[in-house]
Specification:
By secondary structure, the chain is an alpha/beta fold. Helices cover 38% and strands 15% of the residues. The protein has a five-stranded parallel β-sheet. α1 packs across α5. It starts with 6 loop residues before the first helix and ends in a 10-residue tail after the last helix.
Length: 131
């Protein structure tokens, strides 16, 4: 059975509704008290590749539950007045996640175009996870 909408269209539609920042803008925001980086990648990706220093790991499958204050899984992080900078490996999951977060009412949300891959190519610092 053919699908009606593919991932490329979903990502393109999300990117039309959200803010995408460049890796250079993300590098400037790194270490800022006003910004929190949200790593949506699978834990195995973080263990293998590391993460942006200080980034918070939010498994993509739990994002909606962690944002919603009515959820038993809610995380207070998402009630803070911060700039939420989402990222994944290439920027696809983070575009979709930023769209969902924005739809839910989370303000000041964006994602890094090109994701962690672009961060690494730009020479951004990487924090290894403790084993």
């Amino acid at each position: 059975m053919p699908i009606k909408v593919g991932y490329k269209q979903l990502v393109a539609e999300a990117e039309a509704q959200i803010e995408t920042i460049s890796v250079e803008e993300a590098l400037e925001a790194a270490g800022s008290e006003e910004a929190v980086f949200i790593d949506l990648r699978d834990i195995r990706e973080l263990q293998h590749e590391g993460k942006i220093p200080g980034a918070r790991h939010v498994p993509r499958g739990m994002l909606e539950f962690w944002i919603d204050p009515q959820s038993p899984y809610h995380k207070p992080l998402f009630t803070e007045k911060k700039r939420f900078i989402f990222y994944c490996n290439l920027g696809w999951r983070s575009a979709l996640a930023a769209q969902v977060a924005q739809t839910m009412g989370l303000e000041n949300v964006c994602h890094i175009g090109g994701g962690f891959d672009a961060w690494g190519k730009a020479g951004g610092p990487v924090e290894e996870l403790k084993k």
